[in-house]
TrEMBL record, chains A, B:
Homodimer. Residues 115-247 form the Phosphoribosyltransferase domain. It comes from the Bacteria. Keywords: DNA-binding, Transcription, Transcription regulation. SUPFAM superfamilies: PRTase-like (SSF53271), Winged helix' DNA-binding domain (SSF46785). The keyword Transcription regulation applies. This is Purine operon repressor. It comes from Desmospora profundinema.
Length: 274, 274
């Protein structure tokens, strides 16, 4: 049996905890792995906890009792969340993003795996106490953010499709009307992809009037699922907003196609906190 | 200025390295952060490296010279990759997955964020020395695996769309013929989403005859991009295979709809290694 030094134990423990966010690891698992007394393990965990907390990178939660153990809750500090959102706002203001019709090109940001992970960590921090069972998003561009968030929350993802696919098996479909362009559409979710009564967190990349998110509320109602939060990377101003309670990291105030100017401010997450 | 003990330094260093796979961190960054001599930092890094390597969780790569530093390369051990693939094969054999037409329901597996991360880690390990610039996938179900892989490789993702969307800006589109069902389709990729000449890794969830992957080769040729690898979670037997060189974790040999039986064996990654 391998003999672990404390220094090696600390590295390995940090690695184990970070690799399994929100998973409860019994103290005895660590004690056996490192062939060490539980008291030593507890001292190690206290060190890990202190570093995570001081650096704003997360915390360790202790669950006592026979089914107890320790779990890593990833967090992001207010300061880092603000810096990331400022960077996001700066990126969004780049006039090269302007597409015909005043749409914004976002695929480069959503393709940036480090940025996506950080945004997921912000959402996971904001919604960590909502007892989320599953993250729900709609194809296509919201998917990376949904996985980044769900991974940090340690829960699965269910993807709503805009068309129903044979590979989804039996699905529930509802018809929708886009709030901004009044286009008709449909949203489908596989029956098997969500437990009835699940507490769901809706994550998407961009919200205009909120017709899609509103449609997801209606669709989730068919699963008797509860929506415990809505997080979008960015939103744009809309005359009529179909969703009231949501968190955004950035608000696109104006896209002036002729002047090629985009005005962006910090999202609702930071409202009333400046 | 905060005074760091070695134990705290080890925890924080592990956290920093794991949070930024493949990112080169100069030794001086650590020396400043911890207010410690570079020799102490080097000793710490040696401890981290040894633990990662012994546990098969990755390695630290040292780049010397003025622009040098240290980077974390995530790895998964052969043993864990095999165990994960065995688990995947077991899951795939569940007859409840059989859908009309012999399709398999996979969305539960692809919604499992921990499994997706692990599969991404296998692909990142297999393809770590191919100098990948970007991971390319096709919507929808391949997306989570592509992000999990790209995140571990520290590169961006480009998503090929089956229809061209206004939010993608200028796109390159090609027409495709499905190899298995001979259906017509199209694949589009935003011009901006990939640098010309990029070394790309194609990741997808399931391959039958390989028509979609073949189409992606053709599409990527329009970007003068090179395909340096193809990884799919699972493949099924096809009479005519349009792609030769690929890695799969599981091979679906037979789906017997009437008998409700699925036969699955380990994928090409393990061929010749049993």
């Amino acid at each position: 049996m391998k003999k672990w030094k404390r220094s090696a134990r600390l590295v390995d423990m940090t690695q184990q905890l970070m690799s399994h966010p929100h998973r409860l690891i019994p103290l005895s698992t660590f004690a056996e792995r490192y062939q060490a007394a539980k008291s030593s393990i507890s001292e190690d965990l206290a060190i890990v906890h202190d570093v995570f907390r001081e650096e704003g990178e997360g915390m360790l939660e202790t669950v006592s009792g026979a089914a107890g153990g320790i779990r890593f809750i990833p967090r992001i500090s207010d300061e880092r969340a603000r810096k990331l959102s400022e960077r996001l706002c700066g990126e969004l203001q780049n006039p090269a993003r302007i597409l015909p019709g005043g749409y914004l090109y976002l695929s480069d940001l959503l393709g940036d795996t480090a940025l996506v992970r950080d945004i997921g960590c912000i959402f996971a921090t904001v919604f960590h106490d909502r007892r989320v069972d599953a993250v729900v998003t709609v194809e296509t561009k919201g998917i990376p953010l949904a996985y980044a968030t769900a991974g940090q929350l340690g829960v699965p993802v269910a993807i709503v499709r805009r068309d129903s696919r044979i590979t989804e098996g039996s699905v529930v479909t509802i018809n929708t009307v886009s709030g901004s362009s009044k286009r008709l559409g449909s949203l489908s979710l596989s029956r098997r992809s969500l437990q009835e009564g699940a507490r769901t967190l809706i994550i998407d990349d961009f919200m205009k009037a909120g017709g899609t998110v509103r449609g997801m509320f209606d669709l989730l109602e068919e699963f008797r699922a509860e929506v415990v939060g809505v997080g979008v990377m960015a939103e744009s101003r809309a005359e009529e907003r179909l969703v009231d309670d949501y968190i955004s990291l950035a608000t696109v105030d104006e896209v002036d196609v002729r002047e090629r100017r985009i005005r962006v401010k910090m999202g609702t997450l930071f409202h009333g906190r400046d």
